[in-house]
């Protein structure tokens, strides 16, 4: 019976009569060969399509290489980015979704080992890979490895998020410490006190807790840590750095203003003074933006703060990013972080940045944040009245 079935499939023996409801008989009557059914069926990864007519020898540009890889993906059953990543893990490869998305889109030049791992995931025969290696040498060989995109590429329909980082890359959130002279009135901030709480000596703990939770939620498999700037180890500077707080308490913020040649400067916080401002050097002109405070019922009340957000390439390790969230006061620093995390305004502001910044890796903005009944509201970047200054610079 088995032999007869094989001979029938080869056309050597006439098939037995079949019932009216038989699917293959219906296909035979309409004149369509069973092999053509593959055009309408999503092929699993274990049964890749043919690759014989794909000729990598004609590839001369990164765009052409990406186009050919996309054809390989389609013939492999059009697996999702998540499936490609999982298949790579099973075979011992690292195929991060964000990286693969950039390679398939032609935005990123693949490393040689990543290209071969991708071809293996698609099921390309071993004998065909030498031609692909030659194509890689022509189009990519000799190029420096590109740093990761600042705004991660979408994966499986996910909207890019500025707080989502490439897989397996560490993130370090850092803030300053309150000077001892300012915390002596709190017994629980004294290490000798039985109720000592270390976090009470951190500047901007509200922002630290908010960002740590948000980044961990978006990057559950990452090594996300936090520390004060005085506790940072040399290896920590090669992480994706998230720097919290202004230059008055956070020395790393002050250093990065100079190292990154940012066009902004924050005035120092002097005792017994309300004179605080953020200065922007715009050509030969200097603009100064001040928070708005009132004096109601004998107390200083913050009505409006000036905030700074910056994202750029980490100068210590160009494969990583650096982000600065700062305000003239603590509530402004929290608003700078919530500007892109808020469940309502966050997506709106991130969409605005994608339209105005695109793939630029060095950008920043200064905005105003309003304080209503002691609660700070993040700015709406689509409102020109909230934006004070914005810039970007190609790297």
Average pLDDT confidence is 78
From the N-terminal CA to the C-terminal CA, the straight-line distance is: 70 Å
Query: What class, by secondary structure content?
Result: alpha+beta
**Roughly how many Å is the radius of gyration?**
29 Å
Keywords:
single chain, 395 residues, alpha+beta, nine-stranded mixed sheet, 12 helices, 19% strand, disordered N terminus
Describe the structure.
The chain is α+β, with helices and mostly antiparallel strands and 395 residues long. It contains twelve helices and twelve strands. It has helices spanning 2-9, 23-29, 62-75, 81-90, 97-105, 112-122, 129-139, 180-183, 205-218, 251-259, 330-338, 345-357; strands at 171-175, 224-228, 240-244, 264-266, 278-282, 285-289, 292-296, 299-313, 321-327, 363-372, 375-377, 387-392. The strands form two sheets. Strands 1, 2, 3, 7, 8, 9, 10, 11 and 12 form a nine-stranded mixed beta sheet that branches. Helix 4 (81-90) packs across helix 5 (97-105) and helix 9 runs parallel beside helix 11 (330-338). The radius of gyration is 29 Å and the shape is elongated. Residues 1-49 and 145-157 have low confidence and may be disordered.
Quick overview of this protein structure:
The protein is an alpha+beta fold. It has twelve helices and twelve strands.
Topology at a glance:
Blueprint: H1 2-9, H2 23-29, H3 62-75, H4 81-90, H5 97-105, H6 112-122, H7 129-139, E1 171-175, H8 180-183, H9 205-218, E2 224-228, E3 240-244, H10 251-259, E4 264-266, E5 278-282, E6 285-289, E7 292-296, E8 299-313, E9 321-327, H11 330-338, H12 345-357, E10 363-372, E11 375-377, E12 387-392
Parallel strand pairs: 1-2, 1-3, 3-9
Antiparallel strand pairs: 4-5, 5-6, 7-8, 8-9, 8-10, 10-11, 10-12
Helix pairs in contact: 4-5, 6-7, 9-11
């Amino acid at each position: 019976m088995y032999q007869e079935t094989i001979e029938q499939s080869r056309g050597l023996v006439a098939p037995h009569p079949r019932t009216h409801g038989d699917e293959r008989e219906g296909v035979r009557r309409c004149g369509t060969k069973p092999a053509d059914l593959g055009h309408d069926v999503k092929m699993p990864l274990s049964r890749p399509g043919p690759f014989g007519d794909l000729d990598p020898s004609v590839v001369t540009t990164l765009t052409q290489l990406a186009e050919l890889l996309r054809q390989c993906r389609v013939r492999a059953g059009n697996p999702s980015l998540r499936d490609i990543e999982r298949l790579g893990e099973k075979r011992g490869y690292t195929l991060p979704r964000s990286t693969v998305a950039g390679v398939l889109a032609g935005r990123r030049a693949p490393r040689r080992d990543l290209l071969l791992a991708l071809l293996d995931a698609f099921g390309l025969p071993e004998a065909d890979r030498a031609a692909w290696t030659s194509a890689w040498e022509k189009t990519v060989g000799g190029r420096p490895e590109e740093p990761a995109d600042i705004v991660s590429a979408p994966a499986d329909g996910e909207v890019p998020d500025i707080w989502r980082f490439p897989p397996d890359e560490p993130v370090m959130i850092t803030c300053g410490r309150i000077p001892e002279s300012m915390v002596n009135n709190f017994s629980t901030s004294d290490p000798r006190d039985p109720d000592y709480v270390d976090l009470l000596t951190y500047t901007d703990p509200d922002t630290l807790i908010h960002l740590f939770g948000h980044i961990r939620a978006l990057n559950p498999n990452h090594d996300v840590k936090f520390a004060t700037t005085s506790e940072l180890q040399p290896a920590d500077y090669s992480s994706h750095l998230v720097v919290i707080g202004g230059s008055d308490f956070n020395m790393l913020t002050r250093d990065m203003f100079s190292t990154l040649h940012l066009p902004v400067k924050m005035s120092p916080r002097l005792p017994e003074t309300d004179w605080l401002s953020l200065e922007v050097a715009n050509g030969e002109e200097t603009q100064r933006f001040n928070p708005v405070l009132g004096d109601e019922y004998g107390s200083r009340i913050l009505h409006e703060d000036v905030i700074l957000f910056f994202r750029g390439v980490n100068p210590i390790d160009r494969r990583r990013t650096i982000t600065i969230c700062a305000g003239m006061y603590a509530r402004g620093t929290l608003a700078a972080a919530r500007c892109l995390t808020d469940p309502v305004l966050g997506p709106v502001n991130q969409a605005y940045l994608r339209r105005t910044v695109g793939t630029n890796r060095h950008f920043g903005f200064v905005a105003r944040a309003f304080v209503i009944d002691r609660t700070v509201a993040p700015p709406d970047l689509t409102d020109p009245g909230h934006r004070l200054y914005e810039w970007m610079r190609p790297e």
